[in-house]
Amino acid sequence: MKIVISQNRARAAQKSPIQKRFERLSRKLLELRRHNQDFERELNELVGLYSDYSRQQDEAQLDTLKALAQKLIVFASRKSLADWHRDELGHWLGQLVSKIAAFDRQAAAALDLDYQAALAKSMDMTLEEMQQELHYALSDFEAFFDTNPNQAEADWDETEDDEGLQDDLFGFDGLHKDTDPPWADAWEDDPAQQEEDRFEPAHRQDKNPMDSDWVKQLFRKAAQALHPDREQDEDKRAIKQQQMTQLLKARKQGDLMTLLSIYSEHIDERGIEIAEQEMAQICALLEEQIEELAFERATYACTHPVRYQVYQTLYASDAESRQEKIEDWKQALAEQAQAEARLLDSLKNLSQLRQALRERQQQRYYADPSLFGF
Length: 374
What we know:
This protein is mainly α. The protein has helices spanning 9-12, 17-60, 62-76, 83-101, 105-122, 127-147, 151-154, 158-162, 184-188, 191-198, 202-205, 213-226, 234-253, 256-266, 276-302, 305-314, 319-346, 350-367; strands at 3-5, 272-274.
């Protein structure tokens, strides 16, 4: 679909700056969309590889994982462990039991029960007593917030934060927070502010180009052509239903390029002539969408824990670098399996356990300092 500025025939052969800007932004937007699609496809392929290979490795060393978990549970009953020892030990056991549960849920459940019994023993309690105490604590907690849903906010006294502060010297405390200050009306008449507003992007001063009459007309024509109820053939109706969904999504998201592409495919392949002011609005909209696409990539990688882990561990922009990361990761898994096998044989006293817990804590800290409040 081609969009051009309305102009006379004498000027039609020469492109205006705004026309060139539109074409440049259009190319950039389409290029970024292709890059994002490639990124999602490549990352999903890596997630599949990561999950399958990790599962194979865990299954191969299942007996070692079970034996190591049992040994750690024995240490969990020791009273001399510090709080951070218990936290790190619980995290370690949680990882082991999770891996075991993928292949033997019964064994994982038994290990979890043994761990709870070890914790109870460290507190000079039976398992039943510890579970009863936990039940009472949870019941009291739930009952408190059921009867006092706003108590947590009420317990905070605003005056406590005001103690020791200097008295208001300028009379601002008397202004209500929901009212405008006395100088608010003068702001609109400020020449500096007016000059700043003059350089605001067109899409912030004027209406959204998606609300323009010509865009609405394009949408109506495309919607009429794609209406699935008018199609008798089942296969074609399914295709039109999909395209209609895409059209509605484009309108909702302000995706002008997709709307124009659908219109061009089904209605009219010729160019659309619009006014220069509307072209400027469209360019501003395209710039916004280009910025959004830059964030979409990061958002997609970070919104799922496994996907983020894979992105951090295996992803690279080129295939050769990705393959190198995959090989390094596989080597690291093999070394980890060997280390756990050696640890199973060498872990015989609390001193060795504390050293192992310290090393694990440091490894987790360097992997993600935010886990420790930094």
